[in-house]
Amino acid sequence: MLSRIMAHAEPAFASTTAEDASVAYFAAMQAFGASYLQTRLYRRPAATLTSSSHWAAGGFITRLAPANWPGSPAFDYVCFECNPLLGAIRESRTRYRFSDFAPRSGEFGVYWEALGEAGIDDALCSTSYGADGAIASLHLGFHERDFTADESFAIQMAGLVLTERLMSLTTPPATATVRLTVRERDSLALVAEGKTDWEISVILGIAEATVRFHVDNARRKLGAVNRAQAVARLVNQRLI
Fold this sequence. Notes:
Blueprint: H1 2-13, H2 18-28, E1 34-43, H3 51-56, E2 60-64, H4 73-81, H5 86-90, E3 95-97, H6 98-101, H7 109-116, E4 122-129, E5 134-142, H8 149-170, H9 182-192, H10 197-204, H11 208-222, H12 227-236
Helix pairs in contact: 1-2, 1-8, 2-8, 4-7, 8-12, 9-11, 9-12, 10-11, 11-12
């Protein structure tokens, strides 16, 4: 699994600008039917989080979409009138789908019709959270594409590697070197492989509670909000 994540994310590592990294990642996702990409690097609004304050925060890096989509009534609708994805930011989610926050049944019918005009049947999202309210986000849309759990995991984790890369290209690196123990690094590397805490405990020959202890220690040392971001940060620092 880790090798698959790295294969998806490697083009972003070879890029020297945030825009080039975004475009390279999108090109790598073409094989999966990617139809839309948006990347941003901005600071969480100090005011109440609304569609307007979220937009006003700016920080747009790259948007790859049909030429007539930005500024269209459908675009304005999903950006300013109906933006259920604000819930993901409030919860500091690092991996999710549009459909997790906008179920296709019921009140979001118009929302999905509007997204359909950009060729978006659903989107996989990755978001990194940094110091001083910094947020780097990726929205990766697909046209009529379903994914296995492994495919979704690999693409979203590679997306998190990209959003961590976007932060590293635009903010100074940390002055202190992160030092993980062998157990912390090994436990987090197995998280990257999609292993559960129980599976990791069997592989390493330790208790599940000990696995959780090592993973949480690694997460805190890396300054990540959850284990998924910790893996992405570990990859970006070339520690695995």
